[in-house]
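Supplementary Methods S3. Input chains for the assembly prediction are listed below.
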Amino acid sequence: MAEYKSINGFTIQDVATDPTINTGQVWYNSATKAIKLHAATVSGTWATGGALGAARQKSGGAGTQTAGLIFAGNAPPLLATSEEYNGTAWTGGGTMGTARYAPTNTIGASQTAGLAVGGSNGSADFNKTEEYDGTSWAGGGNYPISKQAMAGAGTQTAGLSCGGGGNVTTTNEYGGSSWTAGGALGTGRLTFSGCGLQTAGVVFGGTNPPPKSALTEEYNGTAWTAGGNLNSARSNHSACGVQTAALAMGGDLAPATTNLTEQYDGTCWAVETVVPVARYAQAAGGTTTAAFLSGGSTGPANTTTTYEWTGAGVPLVQTVTTS
Amino acid sequence: MAKKYQYLVAENWGKGFIEINDSIKFTISGFPGDVWRVPAHDKQANLWINKVLGVIKTKNEAQAIVDALVETAQDNYDEQSDAYKARHDRPTDIPLEE
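Predicted structure tokens for the full assembly:
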């Protein structure tokens, strides 16, 4: 049988461990006896991550795929605990002062600079703000009104929260210690999601009772303007990314729970690879390149499962197989 | 007509249960009760079933597992207050495809 070298005049690299990523590179791994190559994902993919310590829904989420944070939520009972993710496993973090569900999900905040705003205990909504430093939670400036199910964007020192129960259009901006009024949403809604920055935020979906909303609005630090509509109107979905590169994941369609993923480019939403399991009220963090999606409910039950998103164009090692 | 899907039960242990290369090669869909659906007559899907120690179920067996959990959740929902129901949707039936 002809050898590869006699056909092409050279051999592929023979190594015991996979080389550093260089897209297009092909090599033979003598340890695993496999021909491998560095390719790139052609569309987004989902993989399972580490399981949460506590099944929960309607939690807050923040951070990145390798430094994530989940806090509060409903197990039941209501939770005040937080957990931190390192890309492999979740470990216990600080405990909040107030157990609650449906706080504003301020995605831009990091694992070491989290922000929890508002929420509910089922009988009353809260105006409480709490700040996380990677170890413990401390009280921040109270939100001007008691609300749950708001959408948010920004960071611990430049945050944004808007809408919420009662379908108010209120927007408020956080400066690290107190809240000031911002521009009003065009459409008041609750159980929607947002991401981005205080000066370049985006919110989408939600309930504007009773139908689900597909509306997207973009914030410039002063006023909201209309963006492209979601392909699938939904509520209780999750979000991550920035105003020009955002993900909408899972949630409630009317009436079923969905696993649909959509990606925003600042103008239009495009359908992306579905989450393996349909869930709503999940916590999320990260970017359109690398994100995590954790907890939530399938409808019948709350879950501990984390899914990790890898966006299109991300390099990965593949093994050449025959079939 | 040839089956389009096959169903299995497997416990999701977390990291590594579904890997990126699994998701690239075929579609894995999960349902309540650790029920998973993958393409039938697919070598890569069969290798994944072996990896996760999946127990093959017929579509009707898988449907029964899912239905039992959904019905329990619906019963729990029906017992909740009107205030709760105003803010939450009732869990819906999940029909599995053949």
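Helices of chain A lie at 4-8. Chain A has a mean pLDDT of 93.
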